[in-house]
Amino acid sequence: MESGALVEIRDLAVWYRVYGGLLKVLDGVNLTVASGQRVGIVGETGCGKTTTMKAILRILPRNAVLPRGEVMFQGRKVLGMRGRELQELRGQGVAMIFQDPTAALNPVFTVGQQIMEVIKYARAGGGPRERRLMALSALKEAALPDPERIMENYPFQLSGGMRQRVCIAMALATARTLLIADEPTTNLDVTIQDQVLRLMRRLVQEKGTSLILITHSLGVAREMTDLVYVMYAGTMVEVAPTDELFESPLHPYTVGLLRSIPKLTGGGIAEGVPGRIPNYADPPAGCRFAPRCSRAMAICSERKPEFFDTGGVGHRVACWLFAAGGGAVV
Amino acid sequence: MGLGRFIVRRLALSLLVLAGLSVLIFLIARVVPGDPARQALGPRAPEWAVENLRKEMNLDKPLHVQYYLWVKGLLQGDLGKSLLTRRPVVDDIKEFLPATCEIVVFSALVMAIGGILLGVLSASYPNSWFDNLVRVVAYLGIVTPSFVWAVVFVLIFGYIWPILPVVGRLEMGVEAPPVFTGFLLLDSLIFGKYEAFGDALRHLILPSVALALGGMAQAARITRSSLMENMGRDYALAQVAYGIPWRVILTKYLLKPSLIPTVSVMALDIAALFANAFLVELVFNYPGISGYGIRAMLNKDLNAITGVIMVLGVIFTAVNIIVDLVVAYLDPRVRLLGGSQGG
Amino acid sequence: MVKGTSWQERLGRAWYGFSRNRLSVVGLVLVVGIVLLALLAPLVVPYPEHAGAFVDYANANLPPSRAHLFGTDVFGRDILSRVIFAFRGALIMAIGVLVAVVPLGSFLGLVAGYYKGTRLETFIMRLTDVFLALPPLILALAICAVLRPTLFNSMMAVCVSWWPWYTRLVYGMASSVRNEFYVQAAEVTGASKGHILFREILPNCLAPIFTKMALDVGWVILVGAGLSFVGLGEQPPTPALGTMVSDGAKYLPHLWWNSVFPAVAIMVMVLSFNLFGDGVRDMLAREEA
């Protein structure tokens, strides 16, 4: 356990109650984000990235069960927080940007009303006039033209890209320690994606906010982050500094993922890694990747691998191939 | 598209609907099997009397001329003469309609306020004992016809626990105010008859509650379910994530969009209030339009039937417009994009 | 619909969806019970001959007892027997109305939805506006009033006021489904209009139609009871629940059983079909998901 970690998730499991029993979606997730760090989480759609992030903010749906694990934010146990403490975490500590900006904005309130409400409960602005000025400057910072007019607009009067900028403005209108961005550009036009990402990078840098960026695009992760976690079917399979991960990936899944980069857009990774994400209702007993892994061994389907240290600094991998610690068993 | 154009469009549509409705009602009144005049006067009436009445009702003219004359009268506020009361139908309606409107307005208030309040409360504590209680009561409210509530109320408050009046509009011996608007509550206030006001209000309670319960239950259920649905939306989640207290999200940010379906249905509910007032007024012996209408119906008093129904059609159309305006206020998409009207 | 699964699994899934709410199962049991009682009325009621114009003043106005569970009315007829016989009229009314209204209303909605943006659509939808400008009960009252009051006429009257709901429902879905790729594909390949309307679009509208039908049974019964309450439904001596309530109300509170039991019967009927309908909705919503 490193001290000074901003976020630390330890062995977190999250299950969902559904028809036919339990979906064991998260199975022992470990994640550490240091102060000021920009961390990417990559993985296929449905591998539990969003669930992990929702756990940090304690906004999991009602049918979620948390059988074990802990989430720490600035050294405080998030899962035990109540009332005011939780309010502070959400209002001042962490902000989240959602995948679909259309769904993330209330359709029947103006942009201004919504941003000002966020500012109000972040306990940042003084009176209504001050809040209005803060909202305006946040919109300006998010590179939105004519903020005065946009304040009076309803979300449906804006384009998708503008809506996502509004969301970013809302998230960063007041000082935050951590920004979680959940596939912030997936629902946007390709031409807009880059602009929005650059805006986010600039704002995070200027404000010194830590960032967790969820994406299924390795390219985006490479461009935006210092550290990358690779997630597969509810567990973290590999973590490494961004450059190192791209140069020397270890986990067979990561290797496959990288091999499939050119085709990795929505359509999945059919060529890079054959097979599909396992059924969460009845996941494989050991390593969840074992059924798809071309290098699976006997132990893989029996015991779940821990994070093993490798040669690289901060490079760890959850795979029995590297159990000895040096990555030499290949 | 601005709000002005929205209203203009809405009014134009309503005029079209009313024109259609006049044709529909006219046709209904003319499908009477047999001769309406003979029906009205009975089999023993002499032929000359039937012939006279036929002339008076324009039944001797071709259908389209009949319609033309009827609409012409309608536009001039002349709905013909009632065969039963031998007075102009308009005068009859003026006498009986305000009483019904009082009941309907009062019970619409009970319905809207009670329904929304219950819906919000049960959505704030989903699956609690309170939520379950509301659900059971809502089911009861929805499946029980208002005339059954009326009968039950009469049984309870008329005989077992007589704390509220169950008959009529005003107690014997209470001095009624002079008729000015026809609305007893208004008239008694205007002329300072506070005793009459209080008494009229007490007489309103049971019929309006009997009427309101069904719609109130419906409103509670719709409000609850659309609140619950919106709670699952990303924007609710986002607002939680931004640290806005749940109380604020619920009563402001979730309530406003959630009221859109509730209010949209409210138009139907108010229409149902008028319809069920026909039955409930009978039980409470309340001198409203329904007694008049039902008597006209049972006696095939055609002018009175078409008159009453046309007037009610106009009222519903107005109610619909008002409800649409409220929806437009709640939903900027309707207001600014010209909205849902006509798809 | 889930494809590629066995009918057992689909049945199991459907039952899971239906029975997730236990009240739906209660509704199903009650509905089956009511239908059986209505079908077998002459065999199961204690006094079948009391369903008609029977008079026995010696046994009139008896309170509920073992011989007459619901008591007897002013003519000495067994109220339980009459209530069970009245289920028949109520069910015939509901089924008759829905059988007539659903195909017609849905067809118009289908056409209007498919021809969205044409005069035909405008005509059909404005027509529904006109028919919906009056609440069903009042329109039905007016129609019943000018016709002779019989069960059949009151059914017709309710039909006239009910079809637009199905037109609107199907219209809404059809107008969005017609833009789906598979519909456009069918059009490009030159499929006939009939094929597109009934094979491509209609199947996608079925779940909501069935849901609405299941829920509507109760509502039609309610409107029917309202009509017979004012004397515009089934005529005496044939028993009708609404008539029984209104006749009985004259004898409150002393002969309370005259109106209370028929009123409870209406509530139970409507409640059963509502619970059942909720179950159908849950079931079809699940199957779609």
Describe this structure in words.
The complex is a heterotrimer of chains A (330), B (343) and C (289). Chain A has helices spanning 49-57, 83-93, 101-104, 111-121, 128-141, 147-152, 160-172, 190-207, 218-224, 242-247, 252-259; strands spanning 5-18, 21-34, 38-42, 64-73, 76-77, 94-97, 178-182, 210-215, 227-232, 235-241, 308-309, 316-317. By secondary structure, chain A is an alpha/beta fold. Chain A has a domain at 5-233: P-loop containing nucleotide triphosphate hydrolases (Rossmann fold). Chain A is globular, with a radius of gyration of 20 Å. The model of chain A is unreliable at 266-270 and 325-330 (pLDDT under 50). The model of chain B is unreliable at 339-343 (pLDDT under 50). In chain B, helix 1 (3-30) runs antiparallel to helix 13 (302-330) and helix 11 (246-284) runs antiparallel to helix 13. Chain C has 289 residues and is mostly helical. Chain C contains eleven helices and no strands. Chain C has helices at 7-19, 22-39, 41-44, 79-114, 119-131, 136-146, 151-177, 181-188, 193-229, 241-249, 257-288. The longest helix of chain C has 37 residues, at 193-229. Chains in contact: A-B, B-C. Chain A binds chain B through residues 54, 57, 59, 61, 87-92, 94-96, 98, 100, 103-109, 117-118, 121-122, 154, 156-157, 167, 170-171, and chain B through 232-235, 237-245, 248, 253, 256-257, 260, 330-333, 336-337.
List keywords for this structure.
heterotrimer, B: 343 residues, mainly alpha, MetI-like fold, 14 helices, 0% strand, globular, disordered C terminus, C: 289 residues, 11 helices, 72% helix
What is the overall silhouette of chain A?
Answer: globular
Query: What is the H/E order of chain B?
Result: HHHHHHHHHHHHHH
Sheet with most strands of chain A = 8 strands, mixed
Q: So what's the CATH class of the domain at 93-297 in chain B?
A: Mainly Alpha
Secondary structure: number of strands of chain B: 0
Q: Mean of the pLDDT scores of chain B? A: 85
Mean pLDDT over the full residue set of chain A:
85
Rg result of chain A: 20 Å
| Amount of helix of chain B | over 70%
> How many helix segments of chain B?
14
Summing up helix and strand content along with how strands pair, one would put the structural category of chain B as mainly alpha
Biggest interface, chains and residues, is: B-C, 55 and 50 residues
The proportion of residues in beta strands of chain B is under 5%
Unreliable spans of chain B: 339-343
CATH architecture of the domain at 5-233 in chain A: 3-Layer(aba) Sandwich
